[in-house]
């Protein structure tokens, strides 16, 4: 069996106060489960930065391919400098739970995360239950809240009585 490598790198200094304070603010603002989610997002940002640095000497067509991929996610990049200036917050803003909160489908970021985790969010008719799902710009307009239609308790009792009478 081939073991997958980690998708993130832990901080070198585990008890650096300024970093911990910043991470706590991000965890609170985006209702993240753990700081590991911040580290994964930071790894994605670093990947995009390294990719941009490697493409700085490449042709404009190759650079444009990277810019188009990043623009499809919803980040505004036109130059390599824009890609190098990306922040963790830019990618955290594109997460499904954050967008559900910004679309006012949830009252708080934690409520948005709970809605996603409990399979109450539909994207184009299909259920997505991954809060860290990166929402492309094209899918942002088709996010909906799933409505569970359950009969009320009084109606349920009336229906059960009717069924019982029919069987007799």
List the helices and strands and how they pair.
Layout lengths: L16 H14 L4 H21 L4 H14 L6 H5 L3 H5 L3 H7 L6 H9 L3 E3 L2 E2 L9 H4 L2 E3 L7 H15 L1
Antiparallel strand pairs: 1-2, 1-3
Helix pairs in contact: 6-7
Short description:
This protein is mainly alpha-helical.
Question: Could you walk me through the main structural features you see in this protein, from its secondary elements to its overall organization?
Answer:
- It is built from nine helices and three strands; from the N terminus they run αααααααββαβα.
- Strands 2-1-3 form a three-stranded antiparallel sheet, with no helix packed on it.
- It has one domain (17-145).
- It is elongated, with a radius of gyration of 22 Å.
- By secondary structure, it is mainly alpha-helical.
Structural features:
168 residues, 9 helices
Work out the number of β strands: 3
Strand arrangement, major sheet = 2-1-3
Q: How far apart lie the N and C ends?
A: 61 Å
Main sheet specs: 3 strands, antiparallel
Gyration radius, to the nearest Å?
22 Å
Q: Low-confidence spans: pLDDT under 50, at least 5 residues? A: none
Whole-number tally of structural domains: 1
Annotation field: number of helices: 9
Overall average pLDDT: 90
Main structural class: mainly alpha
Give the amount of beta strand, in percent.
under 5%
Query: In which range does the helix fraction lie?
Result: 55-70%
């Amino acid at each position: 069996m081939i073991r997958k490598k980690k998708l993130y790198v832990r901080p070198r200094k585990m008890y650096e106060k300024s970093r911990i304070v910043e991470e706590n603010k991000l965890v609170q603002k985006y209702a993240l489960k753990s700081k590991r989610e911040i580290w994964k997002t930071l790894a994605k940002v670093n990947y995009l930065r390294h990719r941009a640095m490697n493409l700085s000497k490449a042709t404009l067509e190759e650079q444009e391919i990277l810019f188009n991929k990043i623009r499809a996610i919803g980040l505004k990049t036109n130059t390599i400098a824009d890609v190098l200036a990306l922040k963790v917050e830019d990618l955290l803003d594109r997460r499904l739970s954050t967008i559900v909160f910004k679309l006012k489908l949830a009252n708080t970021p934690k409520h948005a995360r709970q809605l996603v985790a409990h399979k109450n969010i539909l994207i184009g008719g299909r259920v997505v239950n991954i809060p860290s799902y990166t929402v492309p710009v094209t899918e942002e307009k088709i996010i909906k809240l799933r409505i569970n239609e359950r009969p009320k308790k009084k109606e349920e009792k009336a229906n059960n009585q009717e069924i019982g009478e029919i069987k007799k």
